[in-house]
Specification:
By secondary structure, the protein is of the alpha/beta class. It has 12 helices and 10 strands. The strands form 2 sheets. Strands 1, 2, 3, 4, 5, 8, 9 and 10 form an 8-stranded mixed beta sheet that branches.
């Protein structure tokens, strides 16, 4: 059984995380222990993740099929033919394993190199609200912590399900650790179902607010030669506050996350004709980064919808 609670504000803290009471298997009990991960250096852990993904690719037809289907969901044939897509799908397995393992190593949080921090500082010094655009690829899960370690007071908008409807069993423990990694790095978490006032307050306090656009939604954007449907919240918030939107470009880099973050030149929401135009420009920018490192995408079917979900549809967790 997993206990649910209602966070008292739009910026929940560790005390708002629900108590998890689900029983774990003996293997999972060992895996969630910090000692287990302390005993295995991260380089060895990454080698084990790579070996695991390679073995699964070689011996499991079901795993290969699932990986290829995921990547085809993200990349149409106009981007990658079948042979090229197989290579991307094979490498993606390791990227997913890397992210899953690093959730349990909070002492490595904030280790992704960040370039272009001065752009955010200059914008805030000029009195402009700052929004940081995140795409789920590479070491994205460490982006808020790495910005915070680089000296940027950072807030991130996250799903309320972490606090209201945690997943049962092991995934619930993993999600809890993921949220704690941010909170323990002095990152402000803003719940997405109560975000209007907390986001406005964070921007007024010169925090950089991080949002993602690559989530299931009803607004159509054009990417890789086709229309997909995503959440427009980031563009609407930026237009409302006349913010500067800084896309994060995540590329291969050193260290345990294997990533490097570059804070790109901003998109000025005040100059965009509409939030729709702003969102499409943001999509175009970050699609370029994804094509440069295609295997690093996180769970492709979760990034967008290929068909209009229709009226009355509500996004998943």
């Amino acid at each position: 059984m997993t206990g649910n609670i209602e966070p008292e504000s739009g910026t929940p803290g560790p005390e708002d995380l629900p108590k998890l009471t689900d029983r774990l298997s003996p293997i999972h009990r060992i895996y969630v222990s910090p000692l287990t991960h302390r005993l295995v250096p991260w380089r060895i852990a990454m080698l084990l993740m790579w070996l695991r993904s390679e073995i699964r690719w070689r011996i499991s037809a079901g795993y290969r099929r699932d990986q290829i289907e995921q990547m085809r969901y993200a990349y149409p044939e106009s981007v990658f033919d079948d042979r090229a897509l197989e290579r991307v799908a094979r490498r993606n397995g390791f990227q997913r394993g890397r992210r899953a393992e690093l959730v349990w190593r909070p002492w490595l949080c904030g280790s992704v190199p960040v370039e272009g921090v001065e752009r955010i500082r200059e914008a805030q010094a000029a009195g402009r609200p700052v929004i940081v655009a995140l795409f789920h690829m590479g070491g994205f899960q460490d982006a808020p912590q790495s910005l915070a370690r680089a000296g940027i007071d950072t807030a991130i908008v996250g799903s309320s399900h972490y606090f209201r409807e945690p997943q049962p069993g092991f995934p619930g423990y993993r999600d809890r650790r993921y949220i704690l990694n941010g909170l323990e790095s002095d990152v402000t978490i803003i719940s997405n179902d109560n975000m209007v006032e907390p986001v406005a307050e964070a921007l007024a306090n010169k925090q950089a607010v991080m949002l993602a656009w690559d989530m299931h939604g009803r607004h159509p954007v054009h990417v890789f030669g086709r229309d997909v449907h995503v959440q427009p919240g980031i563009a609407r918030v930026a237009k409302l506050h006349k913010a500067l939107v800084f896309p994060l470009r995540i590329s291969p880099g050193p260290g345990p996350f294997g990533s490097r973050i570059t804070i790109e030149e901003p998109i000025d929401a005040a100059e965009a004709a509409s939030w729709q135009e702003l969102l499409q420009e943001l999509v175009d920018r970050q699609a370029e980064a994804l094509l440069a490192w295609p295997e690093s995408i996180e769970w492709a079917p979760g990034r967008w919808l290929l068909e209009d979900p229709g009226r009355g549809w509500r996004p998943p967790l």
